[in-house]
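Provenance and format

Records in this collection were gathered into a single text stream. Each protein contributes a sequence line and a token line. The two records reproduced below are adjacent in the stream.
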Amino acid sequence: MFWRDYWNERMAPEILSGKTILMSAHGNSSRAILKHLDGISDEDIINITHPTGVPILLELDENLHAVGPHQFLGNQEAIQAAIKKVEDQGKVKCDDK
């Protein structure tokens, strides 16, 4: 996987050297990285909603695993609305008539 190679060869060494990094990724790539850093199962990753264009702050331990809750950066009310919008995309409306 390309992202894992890039993580292991470029990003992880920068973090381990004490640097703070900024990563920008497409939705599926960011979910894969969150899955890796949080140790999220294949079954549970489908329940993770990360709205497009909303930065997320992750703090990592010495083993580069995410610690504590993720922090979405920005207007929290707008972020919750964006999360709901993404979650609602998967819902189907049925007409019982």
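Adjacent record:
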Amino acid sequence: MAEAYIVEAVRTAGGRRNGKAAGWHPNDLAAQVLNALVDRTGVDPAAIDDVVMGCVTQGGEQSTALGRNAVLASKLPQSVPAVTIDRQCGSSQQAIQFAAQAVMSGTQDMVIASGVESMTRAPMFSTIALYAQAGLGSGPISQTVKDRYGVKEFSQFRGAQMIADKYGFSRETLDRYALESHRRAAAATEAGAFDAEIVPLEVETSEGTQLHVRDEGIRYDATLEAIGSVKTLEEGGVITAANASQICDGASGVLIVNERALKTHGLTPLARIHNLTVTAGDPVIMLEEPIPATRHALARAGMSIGDIDLYEVNEAFAPVPLAWLREIGGDPARLNVNGGAIALGHPLGASGTKLMATLVHALRARGLRYGLQTMCEGGGIANVTIVERL
């Protein structure tokens, strides 16, 4: 069977809303990642067969063939095509899977999977709001779909509360998980664990030009008391902004190649892609799908969770990884070892390749073999990707 290899994986440091990365146009922010991938691998930019770029809020500065515009803003030649995809929070994880399928098929040899999201410059739900304000249409979900599931609306926030209720997670349990995310992210940052994956961004400050190389969302002084003081999103609920992922600006990407490209370009792989899975389930509770998706992926790969050394489960909301741990039987010590989106931020369309960059570099730093990545996605979809460190 043909193989797909990751030869480089990078990301920008996360920027808070209106933070250090906010001054970067999404085209240019994504271009920094594309440039870093070719610079670090030394490949001829013209040899890249395609760029698959994830982005969720494809409006405003992120509209109109964002992937192509990012290529034109980069050092890649105009001969390199690109496509922009939306699988909600899993957009760039799906980009990885599309890129891997392309090189495994032999139709292409080198494909960049990437993602970008400036949640400052293209706010979440802004495209929906613009149409609503203009009185155009009834929104992205038709009445047919709402009637089928007996709901007035589909909400990830409601889905997170439903998971907390289903699994009996208390507010304190979620807040303690959030605190641990900040503690792990802070420790990883101080230890330089992210240095190999971060692409520096030049930013203008009142003190002159500086390099943005640290994730801005980490609260180094986080306490359970402070997290517990944040108001819940709904009365009687347990979900808060403090135990959910942070709004974030960022870009990320991985260069995926086949055996032929490894030999032709003299590349050294960081990891081999071992399994590609995507499944779909209940769009109402919505965020629970990583559980059956992981079971399916492990069965297809002929593996058990005990075979997996590290796992990245996106911290969209604290109940998601906690429910996944319980149902899959995972080891908490192997989960999001360098912190997750609660501390580091969740730049929507960029999170898939962001988590992969962190996972691959964490496996290498620890000398471990297998890693698994999954995340919940709007509409009740989930991707799972298993990689083997080489």
